[in-house]
Design a protein that fits this description.
Elements lengths: L6 H6 L1 H4 L2 H4 L23 H11 L2 E7 L7 H10 L4 E7 L1 H14 L6 E4 L2 H9 L26 E12 L1 H4 L19 E4 L5 H14 L1 H9 L3 E3 L4 H7 L5 E5 L12 E3 L7 E9 L6 H12 L1 H5 L30 H7 L1 H15 L18
Parallel strand pairs: 1-2, 1-3, 5-6, 5-7
Antiparallel strand pairs: 3-9, 4-7, 4-8, 4-9
Helix pairs in contact: 4-12, 9-10
């Protein structure tokens, strides 16, 4: 008989671990209207007009972006530079949990570097807004952004919709396709699973917390017994599956609209949890290159950029994702509303982290973007 509490016990004692309120499947926000109230009108200048104004301001732009590898934003960098070739763009990728405290330290020491921050640490945008650190600004199309993806007064706006779940390699699993998280603890997958550490990345942590609440700690214990290979960076599970090193990956992003030839299949199972969020971006009020920062947000929210998203999902209500996708807020099991609440309760987040460390061991390995220090991009 398992010594770990049952699913019923997890749900009953959730308040003690911060489980109940943080991970419950949220009511979908699909019915929320899109509005543009407060904080001034939307931008009316075209991208070309903003581009010329940014060049007149000096033509430089520094962005701190959350991510897993130094090259993860290369496609963004290339697309922006191709469209606006005379902007001197510096785009620094690091874990969001390092970028946010880096920016806080720069505030404290009067050495601020970035103009724009785009991060997974959603709670920081609420805090920075309350501290008066963010420029309230509404890019063109702001009224078309779903309400879950923007501050009503324009302090921040999400520029991308992202989802984390599990994935598998069709060649590796054959006809034995894992269809739900329950399939992942089948002994036949022992030694064949890769995962990012849930106690190293808060989005992966939230995904694992949803699994623990839905299936119980017995499921977590069985997964630990599968001898999964954990690594830092949410890119690592997909990379392991793509390379044929593992059959299944847990805790990474993907696309349901990937071509049939793709070496991985991303899974969003009906009736089972996954997690989704909007990657928030904001212009810092102390930014030295405000117009270039405004140009960047307008470009990111443009219909062309939203239609070109890597996973097909969008933050805009007037951009239709390709089949078979629905709008990300139309998946009730995607827990879109739950992640911001989860991120806001830092004490509960820490308890989740330490609990998963008991099951999976401490996080090991250097950060995958490298060690960037206090002032990257200076």
């Amino acid at each position: 008989m398992s010594s770990f509490p049952s699913r019923r016990h997890v749900l009953a004692t959730g308040a003690a671990l911060g489980l109940g309120a943080l991970g419950a499947t949220a009511t979908p926000a699909s019915a929320a209207p899109t509005t543009s109230r407060g904080g001034g009108p939307e931008e009316t200048r075209t991208l070309d007009e903003l581009y010329r104004a940014a060049l007149g301001e000096g033509g430089k732009l520094v962005i701190y972006a959350g991510g897993d590898t130094p090259t993860q934003q290369d496609a963004t960098r290339a697309a922006f530079t191709n469209r606006f070739p005379d902007i001197d763009l510096t785009l620094i990728v690091d874990y969001s949990k390092y970028h946010d405290v880096r920016v806080d330290n720069q505030f404290a020491t009067g050495t601020l570097i970035p103009d724009v921050v785009q991060l997974q640490t959603l709670q920081d945008f609420t805090r920075w807004n309350e501290e008066g650190r963010l420029l309230r600004y509404k890019p063109a199309g702001f009224s078309k952004v779903h309400d879950a993806f923007k501050d009503p007064q324009g302090a921040w706006v999400a520029i991308a919709a992202i989802a984390f779940s599990f994935m598998y390699g069709p060649a590796a699993v054959g006809s034995d396709v894992p269809r739900t998280p329950l399939d992942l603890v089948d002994p036949k997958w022992k030694g064949r699973i890769a995962s990012s550490y849930p106690h190293d990345d808060d989005a992966v942590l939230y995904l694992y917390s949803l699994y623990a609440q839905r299936y119980g700690w017995e499921w977590v214990a069985k997964l630990a017994a599968q001898d999964p290979r954990f690594a830092r960076g949410s890119n690592s599970p997909g990379a392991a599956v793509t390379a044929g090193e593992k059959a299944i990956g847990i805790g990474g992003s993907g696309s349901l609209a990937a071509p049939a030839s793709s070496p991985t299949r991303f899974v969003v199972p009906d009736g089972h949890p996954f997690m989704s969020w909007g990657q928030r971006a904001a212009i810092l009020k102390q930014a030295g290159n405000r117009t270039a920062a405004k140009l960047y947000l307008n470009w990111q929210l443009s219909t062309g950029q939203q239609q070109a998203s890597f996973n097909g999902w969008t933050v805009r209500t007037d951009v239709t994702p390709p089949a078979p996708l629905k709008q990300i807020w139309e998946y009730p099991n995607g827990n879109l509303d739950g992640f911001p609440r989860f991120m806001a309760d830092r004490a509960a987040v820490e308890r989740w982290k330490q609990t998963f460390a008991l099951y999976f061991g401490e996080v090991k390995g250097d950060p995958t973007p490298g060690w960037l220090g206090l002032h990257p991009g200076a």
